Amino acid sequence: MPTDNASLRCEAQDLGLGVFQVALAGRLDIATALQADRALRATQADARLVILDLREVQFIGHTAARVAGMADARARRLGRRLVVVAARAPASRLFALTRLRGRLEIVERSPAGRFQGARA
What we know:
Number of strands: 6
Low-confidence stretches: none
Shape: globular
CATH topology: Transcription Regulator spoIIAA
Number of domains: 1
Strand content: 35-45%
Strand order of the largest sheet: 1-2-3-4-5-6
Largest sheet: 6 strands, mixed
Order of helices and strands: EEEHEHEHE
Mean pLDDT: 87
CATH class: Alpha Beta
Radius of gyration: 13 Å
Helix content: 25-40%
Number of helices: 3
Distance between the termini: 21 Å
């Protein structure tokens, strides 16, 4: 279910077996953080694992760290997981600067391929 803002595209995909991927593209900043947060909250309600894919994000502001950190806290509180795909330099640099790199589960390649088409 894609949602678009002039500068951010969010696409949530059910990969099966309780795994959802939220792929973002464009700018993730203070103006678009609420849109990203809503997409994450909507998927976290039903997911045991959410993959937050930031590979197509060209600009990432400090608010994005807050969005990812809050999503991670929600997942942990519910006994679930959030995996952040941050292969591009802007996202990787932000998580290092905000010291979230040690707290978030960050990978360079999306594990989505392992789940696509899988159904319980």
